Amino acid sequence: MRPIQRLTILYDSACGLCTNVRHWLMTQTQAVSLEFVAAGSAEARARFSGIPAGELAVIADSGEVWLGNHAWVVCLWALRDYRGLAVRLSSPLLLLMAREAFSLVSNNRAEVSQWLGLRSDAEIEQQLRRVHAPACAPAGVEEELKC
What we know:
Elements: E1 6-11, H1 16-27, E2 33-38, H2 42-47, E3 57-60, E4 65-67, H3 68-77, H4 83-89, H5 92-107, H6 109-116, H7 121-129
Parallel strand pairs: 1-2
Antiparallel strand pairs: 1-3, 3-4
């Protein structure tokens, strides 16, 4: 088996928590290159048709696939500063605890997003589209907003 150099992460782009975790992963120092694809998107369906769209999935350039809590551990493994934690979490006892924690958060991610005020990029875009900027007046017109 060849060494893994790139991981593709399928994430829920409509979930505030998932989107924020994606942004966090992108800011970390990566030991393995990370690519993010919205689960259920046309790209995800075309490239990864056999992978269920309802949960976190990580696909290695070597062909390996991880789902759920295993996928989360692999995401941590891909980060230079969290590789040691990922190795520890992959031990049988800690993997069981990681699975329970991941399941709790994953099954309640909409509520967690709401509690933490986390919005997806799509939600932020929709909100920004509802905001109308005032028209700027030409120079010399006092009644309207000047820019």
